[in-house]
Amino acid sequence: MAQASESAVDRIPYGLLLARLGQESTARFRRALRPLNLGAQQFIVIKQLQAIGSCSQGELADALGIDSSNLASLTGQLYARGLIERNRDPSDRRRYVVELTTEGRQLLTDADKAIEAGEQDMLNALGATEREQLWDLLRRMADALELCPSTEVEACVEAAGDQGLAGPTSRSQ
What is the CATH number of the domain that holds 57? Predict the structure, then answer.
């Protein structure tokens, strides 16, 4: 009995296949954010602000694992677009407290939907259970290799070409 013919993908080393899938995911992420005029680092900042609420710039920098001078530049860009507010902390006038504006929350909602649509298209070949399994396996690999812990977001963004962090928005769809 003849064996089923091997596909080209069967001959590709894991690393190469993962790299190619990563390139495709990054390209889709870029396309999703482009119409919103939003970069990956800006997306991550507003996503983190959504998660933790208002906080000082120092607390936000610590939560993101990025240098406070880099965060100052990012928050300046987001402030100029009206996506965040920066106000003096009433209890410590040396500190700024940042929080999302209504416009920032809406842009984040739009970005999440756009990213999810791109991921849905990419994951169409998998059922819901397979998507969950894929996410669990990728997460285990990332954890085992100590990739992208919450304290190293900046390094992950740089490794993804400043655009490739979409997250698991559609993993269980």
Answer: 1.10.10.10
How far is the C-alpha of 127 from the C-alpha of 119, rounded, in Å? 13
Cα–Cα distance, 62 to 83 (Å, whole number): 20
Summarised one tens digit per residue, pLDDT across range 5-41 is 567 767 789 889 989 999 999 889 889 999 999 998 8
Number of domains in the chain: 1
Compute how many other C-beta atoms are within 10 angstroms of the C-beta atom of residue 157. Answer: 21
**Domain assignment present for 60:** yes
pLDDT digits (tens, 9 = 90+) for 90-138: 888 888 899 999 999 999 999 999 999 988 888 999 999 999 999 999 8
The domain in which residue 61 lies consists of: 31-150
DSSP category for residue 166: -
Query: What predicted TM-score, i.e. pTM, was given to this entire model?
Result: 0.71
Nearest to 167 by CA among 110, 106, 95, 111: 111
Nearest to 56 by CA among 90, 104, 103, 29: 90
